[in-house]
Design goal:
Radius of gyration: 20 Å
Bound molecules: NADP nicotinamide-adenine-dinucleotide phosphate
Distance between the termini: 45 Å
Helix content: 25-40%
Strand order of the largest sheet: 14-13-12-11-7-10-9-8-15
CATH topology of the largest domain: Dihydrodipicolinate Reductase, domain 2
Number of helices: 9
CATH class of the largest domain: Alpha Beta
Order of helices and strands: EHEHEHEHEHEHEHEEEEEEEHHE
Length: 335
Amino acid sequence: MTQPEVVRWGVLGTARITRRVAPAIHAAPSAQLVAIASRDVSRAKAWSEKYEAPVVSDSYEALLARDDLDAIYIPLPPHLHAEWTIAAARAGKHVLCEKPLAVTADDAARMIAVCREQQVHFEEGVMWYHHPRTTRIRELLDEQRLGEIRKITSAFSFPWQSTVDPENEYRLKKEQGGGSLLDLGWYCVGATLWVLRQTPLTVFGQQTPSTGVDDSFCGQLTFSDGVSAAFDCSRQLTSRRWIEIAGTEGSIVCDDFTRPWNEQKCRFWLHDKQGAATVFETATDNQETCLVENFSRRILSGSPNPQDGALALRTQQVIEQLQNSAASGQKLSLD
Ligand SMILES: NC(=O)c1ccc[n+]([C@@H]2O[C@H](COP(=O)([O-])OP(=O)(O)OC[C@H]3O[C@@H](n4cnc5c(N)ncnc54)[C@H](OP(=O)(O)O)[C@@H]3O)[C@@H](O)[C@H]2O)c1
């Protein structure tokens, strides 16, 4: 049997974030946007016209039952990620699921386990991991340009928009996966684990709840050999999205790691021991397109890797323990 040359994509739900991902599926050479499903068929039709998806499904089940789709993009609210990832995997479809993976670490573990059992590829929707700038940062870390990495500090915040309707906003509902830690802290925790490739020994979290979910969250993580990390995330501060990776010989500072402020000018700084800074400018590829293309190529190239989803699952486990720490006021260890 000949291998297909493109991955045929279906999308579950007409979420806001699809304004970035639908064009990315069109732009990725190994991907083809085929179908959209919505709870409301008129919304799906409008979306299909806007984003040129030829097939409209009037339910998520109907879309998953189609045999002309290979991969499903799931940009639903977090409390629905487990249900629909598992349904998609059981329908034999590869899954790109938005962050946060789930509301609980148990759900996240089930999602990854079912994808592995069903032999389908899995990827989380964190775009910055796929940007060429991130690849350049990894090269410098692997070349030990910072010496031994000892400390990672990061922040992600933005001011909450007063136009949001609280009744219909999952980000304000704890049981639906709301709160700043799952929404924004996900990036800081993920970045820390991505840099260190280790699980923390202990975590300590503090939250500021004022709307029933954590509007702001600070976390501290300790790793073996005295390596540590700290982050804060908030929806009550100005826009910040920076990371500093500090080693014994130098540090990397990126002031917009989750998404370049100016997508045509992607850069970060390497500071040496004396503080002299070198600016690294990198390719400006669209990170959503990179994610879709990387994932589609992985699908086309064959069997899933058993490590698929491992970083996302670890991120969820660390976040859950940070939530437990904030609730108990205790520093907690990871199992
Ligand atoms: N990676 C990134 O850069 C990034 C950025 C923003 C958001 N996200 C993630 O993407 C996901 C979606 O976020 P968003 O802000 O785009 O979501 P959103 O605009 O609120 O859309 C969620 C969609 O889910 C569907 N849905 C099904 N059941 C629902 C329910 N009970 N309540 C609300 N919606 C329901 C709806 O589509 P239909 O009604 O059409 O079925 C809705 O349009 C989240 O996990 C979020 O964290 C990622």
